[in-house]
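A quick aside before the break. I want you to see a complete sequence-to-structure record at least once, exactly as it would be stored in a machine-readable document. Don't worry about memorizing anything.
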Amino acid sequence: MEDKYGKNVEEKWQKWWEEKGTYRFDGSDMVKPVYSIDTPPPFTSGDLHMGHVLSYSYFDFAARYKRMRGFNVYYPQGWDCQGFPTEVKVEQKHGRKPPEEFRKLCQEWTVSCIDRMKSQMIQMGFSPDWRYEYRTMSPDYHRKVQYSLLKMHEKDLVFRGKHPVFWCTKCMSALAKSDTEEADRQSTLNHLKFTSAKGDVIIATSRPELLHACVAVLFHPEDKRFSKFANETITTPLGKQVKMMPDRDVDPAFGTGALMVCTFGDKMDVVWMYRYKLPIIEAFSPDGKIINGPEWLNGLKAEEAKKKIIETLQAEGKVVKIEPLPQVVKVHDRCKRPVELMLSSQWFCSIKDKSAEIIEGAKAMKWVPDFAISHLVDWANSVEWDWVISRQRVFGTPIPFRQCPKCGKDYPVDYSELPFNPATAAEKKCPGCNEILVPEKSTCDCWVDSSITPLVIAGWPDDNERFSRLYPSSLRPQGVEIVRTWAFYTIYRSLALTGKPPFKELLLNGNVLAPDGKKMSKSLGNIIAPDQLIEKYYTDSVRQWAALSGAMAKDRPFSYQDMTYSKSFLNKLWNASKFISTAITGYAPDESHKQGLELVDKWLLSRLNATIAQVTEDFDKYEFHHAIKAMHQFFWNELCDYYLEYVKYRVYRDDVPKESALAARYTLHTALLASIKLLAPVMPHVAEEIYSIFSESVGDGERKSIHRSAWPVADEKLIDSDSEKKAELLNAVVSQVRQFKSSNKLALNEQLASLEISSPEDLSGAKDALAACTGAKKIAFAQGDLQVKIIA
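That is the input. The structure line, written in C-alpha cells, reads:
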C-alpha cells in the first residue's frame, strides 16, 4: 500500500476497471438473476452538479452492492441531449442559423458537454456499462421515439388540436404544465370602470393589458351587488360591448366581486370560454406583443401595454383606484419568463383521463421511501389538460406526421421512413386531394424522449428476447422534483405501449442545497463544484458524504463538516489497513486458527457479524446512511479505537504463544476483508486498493476485483452476547484510563503502576490485552459494580 491515500490511487483503479471490463453486463449469462437500472439521462449542460453527485452515488451504491450479491447488473447510461438551454447557448455563441446548420452546431456543443460530463462520472467512480450508452439526439433514438408516437397514434392517444396552451414568449414555443414553475412577484390590482344602461360596474384586474381580449364579465350568482346586471350588455373601458353573467366559480371576496374573462388570462378563462362558448380573441403574438387591439396598443410588450393603458384610462377617469397585489405566477422553468395562455395548433397526448390508470400503475411498484408516491398521486389528480408534446424548436426529435395544406388532414409517416427527418423526407401526396403533404416541423418535448428510457434500454422495439429479460427495470432512481415529469410520463407511456408498469422499485432522492439552506444557483454564487471537492477531499470522501446525507426524497443542505468527517474516516481506514496488512503479511487464513480465540477476538468477530447483518439489511432497503454509520461505528470506534490496541503485542512480540498469535491474525484478516467489502459500494477506490493485498484470483491467476467478489454473509454462530457484554466493560475501563492520562498530561503509551478493577463480569481472561492497551504493570480484579482505581 502507498504511504498516503491520494488521487493517484483513484485514477489507477478507474483505469484498471475500464481495461478489465469490471462492470460489464453479461448478456449471455442466463443463470445469474438480472438487476437492471433505468438511470436518469442527465441534461447535457457540460458539468455535473452536487445534485448529480448525490443521486448518481445512490444508484451506483445499489449497482455495486447488487453485483457483489451475485446479480448480473445491467447499468446503462444515457444523455438527455435536446432542450431549450442548448439552443439558447448555441444561439448566443453563433447567432441564428439555417435549421440544419443550427442543428449540427447544437450536436457539436452537446458532444463536447457529454465528453466533459462522462469524464466527471468516471472520476466519481460511477460504474455504468458504457457499451450501452445512448443519446437522445441520435438517429436511432429518434426512430424509437417516433415509433412510440406512431403506436400511440394507432391507439388514438396522440392527436393534433387547436387549444389554449402554455406559451413561452421568449422561447416562442408551447409548454406543458410540467415545464412551468411558480414564482412570486409584486403586481397591482387595478379597479376599472365598466358602464351599462343600469349603471357602472367596477372590475378589479391585475391584467389591464388584456382588456382588448375581454369577452365577458362574470359575478357569483348569490352576489346581490350585481344581480341587476345579470345577462346585461356592458361596455369595457375600451368601448367594447360584452355580456355580464352569473357563474358559480367566481370568488365574490376577490377584488370587487366582478371579473372580466379574457382569452386568455389564466386557466379559468379557458374553462369559462368552453363553458359559455365565448369567442376567442388572440391577445398576443408568439413573441409576446399585443395584437388585435387598438392601434395605439398593438406591437407593445405586455408590461409596456399595461403601463400605457392605465395611463390612458386614468386620463379618461376610468381608473377608480390602484392597489398593490402580491402574486404567484407561472414561469417557464428554463428561462424564468412568465408564461401566457395562447390558442395554438399543437400535438397532444391524451392524458387527462388517464390519471386513475397511472396511479394504479404507480401503486404496483415499490416506492422508496414509501411516502414519495404521494408526489405522483397529487400530480396525477391535478391534471386538467392533455399533455402538449410539440415544441417550436429545431434541436429536437421530429414529430413523425405530415399535414395536407388543402384539406387539413394529418397523416402519420410510414414505419419504413423512420427515423423521420422533415428536411430530407421524401415527398408524399394527400390520398384525398392529391396535394403535396407538408412535413411537421415542430419537435418533441424532451420528456417525450426520456419517457421511454426503460423501454429503450431493454431493447424495445427490436429485441423481444432481451426485452423480456430487462423489462420492467429493477430500479428507477430519480429526484423528487421530476416525479411529475419523468416518473409520471414514463409510467403513462410504458403502460400505453406495453400494458405493464416500467419498474419494480423507485428510489427517490431530494436536492442538495447550499450550506445556507438556499437552492444552489450560479446567480447567487453559492454553487459548490464537485471537481474542487474531489481535489481536496478525494472521490471516496465525496461518495461517503453522499451516503451520509440520507436525503431520501428530502432536500438537505451541503455540509463541509460531513465532508471533513468523511476524509478523516478515509484516512483512518487507510492507516489502520496499512498496520493490519503488515501484521498479516504471509498469513494464510485457516478455520482451525479460531481455536485460539481470546475474549477480545470473540468480541470483535461478534460485532463484525452483527455489523454484516445490519449493513446488508440497510443496503437491501437503500438506507445507505445507516449502512455507512454502522461501518464507522464498527471499524473506527471498535476495531481501531480498541481492538487494534488490544492485539498489537500478539502480532509483534515473539514470546506470544503461536495459537494466540494465529488467532489474532485470523481475526484481523477476517475483519479487514469483510470491512472493505462492506465499504466497497460506497468507497470503491480505497476498498479496491486494500483488497489488492489479499491477492484473490479469478481462477487463472488474474487478480479479482473486490467489486466482483462475494458479499460477506453473517455467521450467526459467531454473534456472542457474553463476549460483547464483557468487552463493553473492558472498553469502559480503557476509556477511563485514557481520560486519566489525558487529565494528568501523560502520554497514551505511558506505563502505569497498577489498575484495580471491580466489575460485574469476570474480565481476568483479558488481563494481557488490558495490560498491553493501558500500560499497567499490575492488574487486580474483583467482583462488583464497575470501578477503576488507577495508580500512576
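Two observations worth writing down. The first strand starts at residue 34 and ends at 36. The longest helix spans residues 624-652. We'll return to this after the break.
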